[in-house]
User: Which sequence fits this backbone?
């Protein structure tokens, strides 16, 4: 047998081996294949986060506080789970995860839910208004750098998409009264009554005068009907 014939035999052997391996792979992936474990998805995370958050509210609020928090001025009772489930831009987040402009970290997500579940009532209040500020590390990580084009906040390394550009939010103490830029969470734009300037800060403590939720550290300005000024309150403090 000449060299060409030997080469043809070698090629036939390689093809036969490839077909055998292919057939084996198809059998492994068929009906007899072991089940593939379900992946923990961002939707799983949002559902667990809502359940954990609302369970924590039940633990930390009195019955009257819980009812007051979820009842609107016209008497409509809202659903805690619905309010703290998937965010309004959930479809955009899913698309960004598929496009790899957001990286979803399942381990960070489960750690986030665990941190919320184990959080003391005294530390829980600020978490009512701001999602995921209690996480050991963020479960949604943006990959777009500051200055580059974006669609939603979660795509940005800075956590803020402003005018479709990844932008750094304002830090603590920054002037915020003349700009639309938000403060870095969980800070909010509040008035400094000593200087009458608007700056990024933690918000007023319970008992301080207010005229909007964003002025209060706990995110709730309790305003009686037909009254402009209210008072900052702590909704759920375990008492």
Assistant:
């Amino acid at each position: 047998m000449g060299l060409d014939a030997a080469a043809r035999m070698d090629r036939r052997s390689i093809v036969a081996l490839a077909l055998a391996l292919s057939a084996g792979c198809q059998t492994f992936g068929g009906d007899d294949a072991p089940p593939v474990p379900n992946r923990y998805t961002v939707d799983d995370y949002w559902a667990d986060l809502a359940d954990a958050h609302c369970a924590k509210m039940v633990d930390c609020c009195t019955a009257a506080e819980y009812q007051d928090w979820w009842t609107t001025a016209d008497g409509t009772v809202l659903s805690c789970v619905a309010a703290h489930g998937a965010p309004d831009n959930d479809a955009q987040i899913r698309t960004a995860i598929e496009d790899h402009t957001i990286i979803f970290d399942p381990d960070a997500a489960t750690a986030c839910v665990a941190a919320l579940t184990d959080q003391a009532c005294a530390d829980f209040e600020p978490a009512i208004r701001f999602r995921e500020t209690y996480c050991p590390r963020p479960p949604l990580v943006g990959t777009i750098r500051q200055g580059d084009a974006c669609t939603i906040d979660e795509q940005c390394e800075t956590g803020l998409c402003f005018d479709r550009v990844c932008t750094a939010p304002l830090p603590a103490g920054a002037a915020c009264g003349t700009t639309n830029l938000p403060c870095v969470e969980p800070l909010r734009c509040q008035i400094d009554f000593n200087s009458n300037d608007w700056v990024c800060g933690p918000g007023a403590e319970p008992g301080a005068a207010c005229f909007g939720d964003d002025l209060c550290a706990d995110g709730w300005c309790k305003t009686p009907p037909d009254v402009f000024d209210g008072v900052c309150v702590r909704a759920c403090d375990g008492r």
In short: Residues 3-28 form the longest helix (26 residues). The two ends are 93 Å apart (CA to CA). Helices lie at 3-28, 42-60, 63-69, 80-83, 90-98, 106-118, 121-129.
